[in-house]
Design a protein that fits this description.
169 residues, alpha+beta, Rossmann fold, 2 domains, 4 helices, 28% helix, 22% strand, globular
């Protein structure tokens, strides 16, 4: 039997007196896709934030690849998150935005540039490397955020509202 990629066990979370998640357990196997569906305010984003390490659950455990990551900060987890607002740096080029996570990992400039170009080609934006985020459409900015998330080769890719700005093509 293989170790689950993600094992969320009895997770609850409260904001003050308001319970957002109550005793949630979820197992995600390696190589699978999992979609959280529910009405507004049902805790989907809170659960993603807990899995990504941006929020610590009030109760329960989060294991990734069998390791307890419940209190591990986002930068130390094998996860990346594409947020609803994409969180791109407006003062940086698209290429620098995509390579930012690699820079934080200490990857040298030449390798960072090459990998950022590969990731941009993967999402159909090879020619956008030197542009600024404000020069792109919403769908293109979303693809830049996706390239930035994928380039660091995370074990778990978290997408919050992933269909919000997709281009028709």
């Amino acid at each position: 039997m293989t170790t689950p990629l993600v094992d969320i066990s009895s997770v609850s979370h409260r904001f003050g007196q308001h319970t957002v998640l109550k005793n949630v357990s979820l197992t995600i196997e390696p190589g699978s896709y999992t979609i959280l569906l529910g009405p507004s305010g049902s805790g989907k984003t809170t659960l993603l934030s807990i899995l990504g390490g941006f929020v610590t659950p009030s109760e329960g455990k989060v294991l990734i690849r069998g390791e307890d990551c419940t209190a591990v900060p986002p930068a130390k987890r094998p996860t990346t998150t594409v947020f609803q607002d994409y969180a791109l740096f407006p003062h940086m080029s698209v290429g620098s935005n995509v390579g930012f996570g690699l820079r934080m990992q200490g990857v040298d400039a030449a390798a960072r540039t090459a990998r950022a170009r590969e990731a941009l080609a993967l999402v159909g934006l090879a020619t956008a490397f030197d542009k600024k985020p404000h020069q792109l459409s919403g769908g293109q900015r979303q693809r830049v955020a996706l390239a930035r998330a994928l380039v660091v080769e995370p074990a778990v890719l978290l997408l919050d509202e992933p269909l919000g700005a997709l281009d028709l093509k």
